[in-house]
Each structure stands twice: as structure tokens, then as C-alpha cells.
Amino acid sequence: MAEARLSIRSAKARDLARRLARRENRSIVDIVERALEFYEIREACREPAASFYASFSQQGGRDIDLEAVIKEGRQGHKGIDR
User: Chain centroid to CA 36: how far?
Assistant: First the structure.
């Protein structure tokens, strides 16, 4: 079966990926995959579930009364100024 190929159309992105690949002694595909994985975790705020639950339980994961939290922060609207 043919292996999937990566096509980078941006000259700037292609040059950066080539430089990083040479510097890290890795393939361009590996550099792009690692960068995208890092982006997903960092920018999209998607932490793997196992590590999220592990850190949550270490921080004293306890039940929270969401109704009380909502009421605590709720403020009435003063209406429209005319």
C-alpha cells in the first residue's frame, strides 16, 4: 500500500520545516506531525484525558455544587440606559 504524502504549499512553512528537520535530524513529516500535536495540546487546550484526570485527582478532585457557584457569581442586569 502506498504511504500517505504530505504536501506543504506555503513556501515559508516548507522552508521552516526543512530547516527544523535538518537541525533536529528528523524527517519533514515528523517535524510537521510533532508541531501539529503540540499545537493541538497547547492552543486548542486539548490535554489527553488520562493526564487530565490524573492531574485533576491530584489537585483534590472533589464534587462541586455548580448551582451554588452560579448563584454566587450572578449579578442582576440594571436594564437599558435611555
Answer: 9
Interatomic CA distance for residues 67 and 50, integer angstroms? 27
Q: How far apart are the first and last CA of the chain?
A: 70
Cα separation, 29 vs 34, in Å, equals 9
pLDDT band at 45 (very low <50, low <70, confident <90, very high): low
**What ranges do the domains of the chain cover?**
11-73
The residues near 5 (Cβ < 8 Å, ≥ 6 apart) are: none
Give dist(CA 39, CA 45) in Å, integer. Answer: 9
Cell reading at 32: 510537521
Question: DSSP H helical segments within 26-65, as ranges?
Answer: 28-42, 49-58
For the full predicted model, state whether its pTM sits above 0.70. Answer: no
Q: Which residue's C-alpha cell is 485527582?
A: 57
